[in-house]
Amino acid sequence: MIGTNALVCLKSIPFLGLAPLAAILFCLRQGAPEHPALAGAAAGLLAGAIGAALYATHCPDDSPLFVAVWYTLAITFITALGAILGARLLRW
Q1: What is the rounded distance in angstroms from the CA atom of residue 22 to the CA atom of residue 86?
Q2: What's the rounded Cα separation, in Å, for the pair 62 and 50?
Q3: Is the dihedral of CA 84, 50, 66, 56 positive or negative?
Q4: What is the distance between the alpha carbons of residues 14 and 21, in angstroms, rounded to a whole number?
Q5: Rounded to whole angstroms, how far apart are CA atoms 21 and 90?
Q6: CA 45 to CA 50: how far, in whole Å?
Q7: Domains of the chain: which residue ranges?
């Protein structure tokens, strides 16, 4: 579960997901979501998944427990960031 790259994982996945999150939120601004925070959270979840997929191509720690714990924490962070930004940016 600890692995050698736990902190790198927690930093890298949200960092790699920031650009997709910005692009997704920009696209969502063109519409008018009924629940902006929920739409932002969905955007953050998608961006976190993209960031995790990019990080997984370079991470040598691939045990199932490592992936389940650290990837989930990192994706949760960017999902929360997406919900916060969505509530602020996606209002109409």
Answers
A1: 10
A2: 17
A3: negative
A4: 10
A5: 13
A6: 9
A7: 6-89
Tokens of 54: 């990019």
Instruction: Please check whether residue 43 is in contact with residue 78, taking contact to mean a CB–CB distance below 8 angstroms.
Output: no
Q: Is 91 in contact with 27 (CB distance < 8 Å)?
A: no
- Residue 65: pLDDT band by 50, 70, 90 thresholds? confident
Stronger pLDDT, 63 or 16, i.e. the higher one: 16
* C-alpha to C-alpha distance for 66 and 19, rounded to whole angstroms: 25
Q: What is the pTM of this model?
A: 0.90
Which one-letter amino acid corresponds to residue 30?
A: Q
- CA 86 to CA 33: how far, in whole Å? 10
| Alpha-carbon span 47 to 27, nearest angstrom | 13
% of the chain exceeding 70 in pLDDT: 98
User: What's the chain's length in residues?
Assistant: 92
DSSP 12: H
